[in-house]
Specification:
Strand content: under 5%
Number of strands: 0
């Protein structure tokens, strides 16, 4: 019996998962990452619209050029 004394038993570490104590921090970090991904997604959407408008403008100008020079 290695731990027969109540004092020795009370000094044993209690198993507590680290995730339980890191949970608020992890939750905060995931929120930050989620927000950053939202910002990136929005920026890509805006860029996509700008690119689409640019392509449409090029197409219209090309069509107009072809019609006028025919």
């Amino acid at each position: 019996m290695a731990f027969s004394s109540p004092l020795a038993i009370s000094l044993l570490p209690v198993h507590r998962p680290d995730f339980f104590f890191l949970n608020p921090f992890i939750s905060y970090q995931l929120s930050v990452i989620s927000y950053q991904l939202s910002v990136i997604s929005y920026q890509l959407l805006v860029l996509s619209f700008k690119f689409s408008d640019h392509c449409l403008l090029i197409t219209e100008n090309t069509s107009s050029f072809i019609i006028h020079n025919s």
